[in-house]
Amino acid sequence: MLIDSFGRLHTYLRISLTERCNLRCHYCMPAEGVELTPSPQLLSPNEIVRLANLFVSSGVEKIRLTGGEPTIRKDIEDICLQLSNLKGLKTLAITTNGITLAKKLPKLRECGLTSVNISLDTLVPAKFEFITRRKGHERVMDSINAAVDLGYNPVKVNCVVMRGFNEDEICDFVELTREKPINVRFIEFMPFDGNVWNVKKLVPYSEMLDTVAKQFTGLRRLKDHPTDTAKNFRIDGFCGSVSFITSMTEHFCAGCNRLRLLADGNFKVCLFGPAEVSLRDPLRLGADDDALREVIGAAVKRKKASHAGMFDIARTVNRPMIHIGG
After folding, report:
1. In sequence order, what DSSP letters do the residues of 46-97 get, joined into one string?
2. What is the spatial distance between Cα 229 and Cα 319, in angstroms, rounded to a whole number?
3. Sequence-ordered list of residues with C-beta below 8 angstroms from that of 233, at least 6 positions apart, any chain
4. Do the bridges between strand 115-119 and strand 155-161 make them parallel or antiparallel, or are there none, so unpaired?
5. Pairing between strand 258-261 and 241-245?
6. What value does the mean pLDDT of the chain take?
7. Which of 188, 166, 263, 196 is nearest to 30 (CA)?
8. Considering the entire predicted model, what is its pTM?
9. Exposed / middle / buried, residue 176 (Cβ in 10 Å: 0-12, 13-18, 19+)
10. What is the C-alpha separation between 324 and 104, in angstroms, rounded?
């Protein structure tokens, strides 16, 4: 079920728990907002767990909870507990903006959350308010420190780098890794519906790496796992590490092992591909596990060798990132 026509085994499922978010980041959500799916059309906790179990029993070893902002779901602790008890699941992760994470993380850890990614694109509070259209920078920093204090190692910090906004902060972000087990992940700016992507805003991996190498001696490449989306580095003497996610300039499609289940129950085999198939509809019509596996397997088999390239992606009708799940 999880092997595509190019022999790629998909062991990593990203589940979007909600389309709602407590921030309004420019690159994720259009300025006018997005139309939210009516609640009855979203997956219930039981439906999420049933579908997740189908994937895990077929070979998925890692689940990441995304959104929207996953921590705004009132039942996230219960969902985490049920997912963490799935036989065969090795990693239960979350990607969050960190606004409410600090107070929820101790309980989430008890419920089996094993890995944390926190999105933060600037260390300057005023710029944070500009990019997110909300206040909250200090709360995100508190969440990063709370994750470190609770023993998450590494605490991953995702930073989307945009020319004219935060490329001048790259070295400041690297400094976060000096004393703490933080993995800063610099992400190339990617096109999605409504985020006004422009190649001029893209800071390529080569330029980001050059910026870091000029400022910090002892930067060395680490050995990456074949399915890693990131190119990983460490600076001698630093506690943490630095990574670059090069989706636009050096794609990693050949090693892709990722699948996505959206909050409305649609199944997506490629972040940048428009193709989706509903798992919610057959589930609610009474399909048994074998029938659902057939739908999933057929979609995986249709997965293409690679995405279309950044200029074609920019012209392709896709959902806003808030709908797909970060």
Report:
1. HHHHHHHHHHHHTT--EEEEESS-GGG-TTHHHHHHHHHTSTT--EEEEEE-
2. 21
3. 209, 212, 219, 220, 221, 222, 241, 242, 243, 244
4. parallel
5. unpaired
6. 91
7. 196
8. 0.93
9. buried
10. 24
Q: 278: which strand partners?
A: 266
Is the model more confident about 228 or about 308? 228
Of 236, 190, 230, 229, nearest to 213 by C-alpha is: 236
Q: Which amino acid appears at position 316 of this protein?
A: T
60 vs 57: CA distance, rounded Å = 7
CA of residue 27 relative to chain centroid, distance: 14
Structure tokens at 212: 């870091």
Q: Which two tokens stand for residue 192?
A: 């999605």
Backbone angles phi, psi at 316, to 5 degrees: -90, 135
Neighbouring C-beta atoms of residue 110, cutoff 10 Å: 12
- Count of residues for the chain? 326
d(CA 68, CA 60): 23
The highest-confidence range among 137-141, 195-199, 316-320, by mean pLDDT, is: 137-141
**In Å, what is the CA distance from 258 to each residue of 64, 267, 269?**
10, 11, 7
CB-based contact 97:66 (threshold 8 Å): no
DSSP state, 204?
-
pLDDT at 6: 95
3-state secondary structure at position 144: helix
235 in Cβ contact with 177 (< 8 Å): yes
Which residue, among 91, 40, 94, 89, has the nearest Cα to 71 in the 3D structure? 94
Q: Enter the tokens of residue 118.
A: 């926190």
Return the structure tokens found at 199. 């190649």
For 234, the token pair is 């460490």
Q: What is the pLDDT of residue 192?
A: 46
Distance CA(157)–CA(107), nearest Å, equals 21
Residue found by looking up tokens 């050995």 in the block: 223
